[in-house]
């Protein structure tokens, strides 16, 4: 019997937050029933979105109604959901302040507040499209449906951003989308990236560059976007290079959550400094951060949140049960990368080991589409670990 009730507070209801609350609820079921442990999740959204769907909605590979489910359907028995926003995190006093004015104390804190989009960070970005939110994906879908030809440019405004392969996936998928519509001969498709290769990982970059060349897609490297010249329809780089566009699809700048920046617990862009192995917020052994919220040198991706949630949940449960926590995160990431409509490859890597290069095939594409249907039950409810793809 614990000497006093322990409260675990989880901030955020995205992939990381959902997985955390389910893992802890399963692992601490008996202690929750006996009143020794309380799990509270603070999440203002009524919906939980499956963000990989945002890539596929614009090109009609997934229906928009498949992209979300009521958050209440994911909350396990024994977890208290507070439908409110967090306005301040007070690590020194083990408390969080809510929009309602309530102050919630904790024994353990898990910050899974994700990343926010900051389109205001680039002048003229309002004239472009992206697919990094549900509404933006629907808007892009309408724009693509009306598009009959011209110059299409796809790229990113700054690093880091969620799901590193997504912009190049969109580029490769668009080529097949336009071909299916019978207008590929009327399209000039260009991908731009701020690095000297098309993707951060060298071997993967070579594979994807070959795919783009095979499909007749142009790419511009070391293109650091400065602003969008809306009147002239030009993307202008810091180096003075320009790309013409009729339709521009640009990933907006990403920042940490407002509450992280407002609480002063992140860097200048709002990313939380955590121990790369234990995932503790540096300087606090009772507080963790997972998923997109951290400053770790890993992908901001769902699989990362899943692997991290496994580590953090085990560390918290071990402490509550009186054991020394030993679980550590090794940087593992796993994801499918679509190389068009009908083919995909798979990436598996960690801090020490780069991904082996896997030739694109239909089987990985099929597995990705199958997983899209299974996400709600096997991942969001934490039935399996490490399969956010």
Summarize the structure.
This protein has helices spanning 15-27, 29-33, 53-56, 134-146, 166-181, 202-215, 258-263, 302-320, 362-378, and strands at residues 6-11, 37-42, 47-49, 68-70, 79-82, 86-90, 95-98, 103-105, 108-111, 115-117, 150-156, 187-193, 218-221, 225-229, 234-237, 242-244, 247-251, 254-256, 287-289, 333-340, 343-349. It is elongated. The protein starts with 5 loop residues before the first strand and ends in an 11-residue tail after the last helix.
Blueprint (SSEs and pairs):
Layout: E1 6-11, H1 15-27, H2 29-33, E2 37-42, E3 47-49, H3 53-56, E4 68-70, E5 79-82, E6 86-90, E7 95-98, E8 103-105, E9 108-111, E10 115-117, H4 134-146, E11 150-156, H5 166-181, E12 187-193, H6 202-215, E13 218-221, E14 225-229, E15 234-237, E16 242-244, E17 247-251, E18 254-256, H7 258-263, E19 287-289, H8 302-320, E20 333-340, E21 343-349, H9 362-378
Parallel strand pairs: 1-2, 1-9, 2-5, 9-19, 11-12, 11-17, 12-13
Antiparallel strand pairs: 3-4, 6-7, 7-8, 10-18, 14-15, 15-16, 20-21
Notes on the structure:
There is one protein chain. The protein has two domains: 171 residues, FAD/NAD(P)-binding domain (3-Layer(bba) Sandwich); 137 residues, FAD/NAD(P)-binding domain (3-Layer(bba) Sandwich). Helix content is 28%, strand content 25%. The strands form seven sheets. A five-stranded parallel beta sheet has the order 5-2-1-9-19. A four-stranded parallel beta sheet has the order 13-12-11-17, with helices on one face. Strands 6-7-8 form a three-stranded antiparallel beta sheet. A hairpin with a 4-residue loop joins strand 6 and strand 7. Helix 1 packs parallel to helix 8 and helix 5 runs parallel beside helix 6. The longest helix has 19 residues. It is elongated.
């Amino acid at each position: 019997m614990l000497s006093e009730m322990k409260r675990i507070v989880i901030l955020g209801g995205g992939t990381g937050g959902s997985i955390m609350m389910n893992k802890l609820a399963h692992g601490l079921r008996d202690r929750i029933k006996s009143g020794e442990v309380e799990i509270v999740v603070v999440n203002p959204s009524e919906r939980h979105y499956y963000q990989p769907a945002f890539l596929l909605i614009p090109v009609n590979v997934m229906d928009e109604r498949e992209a979300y489910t009521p958050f209440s359907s994911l909350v396990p028995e024994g977890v208290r959901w507070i439908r409110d926003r967090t306005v301040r995190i007070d690590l020194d006093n083990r408390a969080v302040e809510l929009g309602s004015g309530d102050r919630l104390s904790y024994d353990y804190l898990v910050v899974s507040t994700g990343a926010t989009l900051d389109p205001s960070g680039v002048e003229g970005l309002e004239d472009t499209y992206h697919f990094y939110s549900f509404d933006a994906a629907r808007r892009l879908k309408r724009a693509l449906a009306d598009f009959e030809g011209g110059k299409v440019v796809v790229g990113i405004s700054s690093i880091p951003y969620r799901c590193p392969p997504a912009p190049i996936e969109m580029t490769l998928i668009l080529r097949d989308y336009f071909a299916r519509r019978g207008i590929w001969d009327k399209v000039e498709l260009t991908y731009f990236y701020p690095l000297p290769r098309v993707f951060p990982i060298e071997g993967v970059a070579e594979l994807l560059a070959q795919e783009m060349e095979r499909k007749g897609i142009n790419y511009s490297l070391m293109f650091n976007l400065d602003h969008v010249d809306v009147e002239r329809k030009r993307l202008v780089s810091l180096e003075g290079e320009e790309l013409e566009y009729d339709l521009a699809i640009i990933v907006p700048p990403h920042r940490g959550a407002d509450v992280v920046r407002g609480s002063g617990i992140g860097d200048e862009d709002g990313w939380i400094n955590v121990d790369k192995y234990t995932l503790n917020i540096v300087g606090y052994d009772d507080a963790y951060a997972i998923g997109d919220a951290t400053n770790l040198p890993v992908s901001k991706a769902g699989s990362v949140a899943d692997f991290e949630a496994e580590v953090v949940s085990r560390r918290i449960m071990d402490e509550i049960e009186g054991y020394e926590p030993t679980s550590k995160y090794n940087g593992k990431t796993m994801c499918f990368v679509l190389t068009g409509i009908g083919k995909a490859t798979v990436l598996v890597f960690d801090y020490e080991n780069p991904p082996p290069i896997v030739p694109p095939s239909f089987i990985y594409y099929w597995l990705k589409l199958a997983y899209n249907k299974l996400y709600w039950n096997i991942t969001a409810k934490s039935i399996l670990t490490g399969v956010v793809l």
